[in-house]
Amino acid sequence: MAEDEDEEAGPPGLPPGTPFYMTPAGHAALQDELRRLWSEERPRVVEVVSWAAGLGDRSENADYQYGKRRLREIDRRVRFLRGRLERVQVVDPATQARRDQIFFGATVTYLRADDSEVTVTIIGVDEADTAKGRISWVAPVARALLGKRVGDLVRLRAPQGTEEIEVVAIRYPDA
Q1: Residue 25 near residue 92, CB atoms below 8 Å
Q2: What residues are paired with 135 via a beta bridge?
Q3: CATH number of 93-171
Q4: What Cα–Cα distance (Å) separates residue 153 from each residue in 27, 134, 158, 164, 165?
Q5: Residue 12: predicted pLDDT
Q6: For residue 43, what pLDDT band results from cuts at 50, 70 and 90?
Q7: For 88-102, how does the pLDDT look when each residue is reduced to its tens digit (9 = 90+)?
Q8: Given this model, what pLDDT does residue 9 score?
Q9: What b-and-e string marks burial along 60-79, b requiring 16 or more CB atoms within 10 Å of the CB?
Q10: What gap in Å lies between CA 127 and CA 21, rounded to an integer?
Q11: CA nearest 49: which of 27, 74, 14?
Q12: β-strands 107-111, 88-90: how paired?
């Protein structure tokens, strides 16, 4: 699916129109990226393209061709970011009142069947980084954990089969 098409759809696996939940830090990062692309990178590329266009034959002018391609990429990403930022719902996990239960923004430690502990933080789709233990709230593990408490056993359906995990800790950032 193209980035522009993703603008209209909700998060993966959820109905269109579902909000894009995001932490304040994730929201700020998208705003910073949009500002950088629009105010810094795009004007630099426009300058290079204008300079290259003035050199004459554009068909063999690599600076011109690359610049035009880069402008299309920037414009596509800017459209995506603007659309996303219009629909984002910022949720600050530090303000979560019910800290004994797993909601968006929680950092959860769970015990797997092989006695290994896994710690994940449940965040927005655009903020996810599984290598850092930051998973999207629509990921199967996150969806299975949402609403649970310490001590709860959770049946997690994974590609390799069903696994039972136990919630051992829930943390939220301090306000």
Answers
A1: no
A2: 122
A3: 3.10.50.30
A4: 33, 21, 15, 7, 6
A5: 63
A6: very high
A7: 999 999 999 999 999
A8: 60
A9: ebeebeebbebbeebeebbe
A10: 10
A11: 74
A12: unpaired
Token output for 151: 């001590």
**What pLDDT, on the 0 to 100 scale, is given for residue 55?**
80
H or E segment and range at residue 121? strand 117-123
Q: b/e for 141-157, b at 16 or more Cβ within 10 A?
A: bbbbbbebeeeeebebe
Higher pLDDT, 74 or 156: 74
- Is 90:28 a contact under the CB 8 Å cutoff? no
Q: What is the mean pLDDT of residues 1-7?
A: 45
pTM: 0.79
Return the CATH number of the domain spanning residue range 3-8+16-90: 1.10.287.180
Domain boundary assignment for the chain: 3-8+16-90, 93-171
